[in-house]
Specification:
The complex is a heterodimer of chains A (225) and B (284). Chain A has 225 residues and is α/β, with parallel strands linked by helices. Chain A has seven helices and ten strands. Chain A has a six-stranded mixed sheet, sandwiched between helices. Chain A has a four-stranded antiparallel sheet with strand order 2-1-4-5, covered by helices on one side. In chain A, 40% of the residues are buried. Chain B has 284 residues and is of the alpha+beta class. Chain B has ten helices and four strands. The longest helix of chain B is centred in the N-terminal third of the chain and has 41 residues. Chain B is rod-shaped, with a radius of gyration of 31 Å. The chains are: A alpha/beta (225), B alpha+beta (284). At the A-B interface, α2 and α3 of A face α8 and α9 of B. Bound molecules: adenosine-5'-triphosphate and magnesium ion.
Chain lengths: 225, 284
């Protein structure tokens, strides 16, 4: 699904990733940990093609990202669901419209789209909030709306950057549970977090691997988790 | 199909509403577009008016040619003239002007009450000619050879400076039209720049959910194009009303005013797309 081969990345002089070699197999569940500023968000941005690698190679959904045109990037993005660290919405559109936006932009609105939307919103626990506007949502509601938006296109890969960062324990567990369920349905998941207890509770449910980002290199975290 | 057009106008589809509304900028674009389009439509009225008038002058005057004969020419001279005229291409008919008609012709210059010795007036023959076919130089050459003293007066020539003035006015008005159109495009480009600059976050979000540049261009260009188009329609109506009040004789060519909103829409669409495309490239 996603393969890093000796990939490097720097913001100007500031080297973030040195030599990352990593393969996320289809249907796998990975956690990405690391200190704040280690480059977790950066690695995720590389995965959803918001950034391009500065060195080495990288393949996303079988495509060599270095060779992709701008329009192809948009097409690949439609196959990846992203839950941002600071989930951004179009504040002038309702929650329902925001969640439907990827579908609209992909030109894939159909007669069943509204039903799917209702089902999805009730699955993430946002029934009845369709007409609200994003600024009216609580932190947890925003995270769940972002998850619903990430899922509306039935993406093969789901990337989540601190999806539980702004919510309490219970809501964090609920969100995690949704991701675990998605993984059971065959989705590939990469979740960046520094919440170790979240990782522990997930490992009771799925065979998740834990990656640690340190000094620009990704290593497999040991069994201490 | 009709539903899709209606949707485009109303902007019902979510993809047509990806740009956050900005009432203040919208009002500014609308007002500027009204002002510029009123100017453009007035310039268009000038073009049409000058064109209509000049065309009539050219038509009327280039058809009329007068031969002035010295007084006291004999019968045989007149027959000679008749034969020369019949051999000249483009002469449709010829009429000898009566004394009364001559008096009417010169009345504006000398006054009607003037008592004239009619016998001393030169004789005039008025020709109705086919513009384009009439061989004026040939006629002059033959008359000069056979009947020196006969003058050929082509009235179109006297009006030549007027026609040239009309032509330059027309070019000036066309230049004004083009400049107004350019101003409109710059206005639209600036509006698009302002909108893109103040909505970087929206663009980032859109890209995140899989929007390509074309979709974003469309979303951002659409509103501004619509506002410009609406302003152009209003401006054209204002100029059209002014045209009704002013003593213009634009006649059937008034429909040319329709070109103003059409051109405004086209240039707004083009300018917004191109500006957005350029800026989005820079912003990636
Ligand atoms: N656009 C940018 N330009 C320059 N430097 C950046 C940019 N974005 C991030 N950085 C820097 O790159 C480093 C890694 O940032 P990143 O956001 O990937 O960290 P992170 O691991 O996600 O941290 P956190 O856990 O706090 O979210 C940080 O030092 C950050 O300051
Ligand atoms: Mg981060």
């Amino acid at each position: 699904m996603i393969r890093f081969t000796q990939t490097g990345f720097a913001y100007g002089q500031h080297q973030i990733l040195r030599d990352v070699t990593l393969h996320l197999a289809p249907g796998s569940f990975h956690f990405l940990t690391g200190a704040s500023g280690a480059g977790k968000s950066t690695l995720l941005k590389l995965c959803y093609l918001a950034l391009r690698p500065g060195a080495g190679q990288m393949h996303v959904l079988g495509e060599d990202v270095v060779a992709l045109s701008r329009d192809d990037v948009a097409l690949v993005r439609q196959r990846i669901g992203v839950v941002h660290q600071d989930c951004q919405f179009l504040d002038h559109l309702s929650v329902a419209e925001n969640v439907l936006l990827p579908l609209e932009l992909a030109g894939r609105m159909g007669p069943t789209s509204r039903d799917n939307l209702r089902e999805l919103l009730s699955w993430v626990g946002l029934s009845g909030r369709e007409r609200a506007f994003p600024p009216e949502l609580s932190g947890g509601e925003r995270q769940r709306a972002a998850l619903a938006r990430a899922l509306i296109l039935s993406p093969e890969v789901i990337l989540a950057d601190e999806p539980t960062g702004n919510v309490d324990r219970d809501m964090g567990e609920r969100l995690l549970h949704l991701l675990v369920e998605l993984n059971r349905m065959g989705r590939t998941i990469l979740l960046a977090t520094h919440d170790l207890s979240l990782i522990r509770s997930a490992k009771r449910e799925v065979p998740a691997r834990v990656l640690r980002l340190r000094d620009g290199v990704v290593e497999l975290a040991g069994a201490e988790l | 199909m009709i539903g899709r057009v209606a949707n485009l106008l109303r902007g019902d589809a979510i993809r047509d509403r990806i740009m956050p509304p900005s009432p203040l900028l919208g009002a500014g674009v609308l007002a500027a577009s009204i002002a510029l389009s009123t100017l453009a439509a007035l310039a268009m009225l000038v073009v049409v008016q000058v064109h209509t008038t000049a065309a009539r002058w050219t038509d009327d005057l280039s058809r009329a040619v007068t031969l002035q004969l010295p007084s006291g020419l004999g019968e045989d001279a007149q027959t000679k003239i008749a034969s020369i005229l019949s051999a000249t291409p483009g002469v449709l008919s010829s009429t000898e002007l009566s004394a009364e008609a001559q008096r009417a012709l010169i009345a504006p210059f000398l006054g009607r009450d003037l008592t004239l010795d009619l016998a001393s007036l030169p004789m005039m023959i008025s020709l109705d000619v086919q513009p384009g076919q009439f061989d004026e130089t040939g006629l002059r050459a033959r008359l000069a050879g056979e009947l020196p003293g006969v003058r050929v007066i082509a009235h179109g020539q006297g009006r030549q400076p007027l026609l040239e003035t009309a032509r330059s006015i027309r070019w000036l008005a066309i230049a004004a039209l083009v400049l107004v159109q350019l101003g409109l495009m710059v206005l639209v480009a600036l509006a698009v720049m302002a909108r893109l600059a103040s909505n970087r976050q929206v663009i980032e979000t859109l890209r995140l959910v899989g929007a390509n540049d074309a979709l974003i261009e469309r979303g951002f260009g659409r509103q501004i194009t619509m506002q410009t188009g609406l302003g152009a329609v209003i401006g054209t109506v204002i100029a059209g009303l002014a045209g009704l009040v002013l003593p213009l004789e634009t006649g059937a060519l008034t429909f040319m005013l329709l070109l103003v909103p059409i051109a405004a829409l086209a240039s707004a669409w083009l300018a917004s797309r191109q500006t957005a495309r350029y800026l989005l490239r820079q912003m990636s």
